[in-house]
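ESCALATION

Customer reports they have been waiting on this structure for their group meeting. Please prioritize. Original submission:
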Amino acid sequence: MNEPNQPGTAAGGCEYTWAFLILRLFIGLRTFLEGVEKFELNGTYSFANYYQNMGHMAQGITGASFLPLWVTRDYAHSIGYLLLLLGAALLLGVKTRATLILTGLLYVSLGFGLMAVQENEGVAWIAIYVALIAGALVLVRHNRFAVWPDRTH
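Update from on-call: job pushed to the front of the queue and completed.
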């Protein structure tokens, strides 16, 4: 027999819904603002700053790792836009399951880059985000506040 606050009941499911919403909003804000940060240089935001910052990032990764410049440059030039897009999609609740999976894979790729340059502190932070995203994927079935919800089976 279900107790009133068990996960299978309406009262118990409410906590999971709010837990997922808070987690989704945090991950979405962090991802979106991480994308915005890529456009900043000396307190101003622009596309020119973005390409300058990402060019420096690509050269730094290539100089400190085994990754060739053509790989790091293409990756660096796309990362800010991907972070903005995925962050906004999470904030709005657009196909949340797929967006979380793509965001998780993006953070894994960021972790790979940091591992390649032996930036262990950054890897630890990325690991925390990956764990949060994995937790969100476990709770995604409780997503009740979405602009474009996932299809349920």
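Sent to customer with the following note: The radius of gyration is 18 Å.
Escalation resolved.
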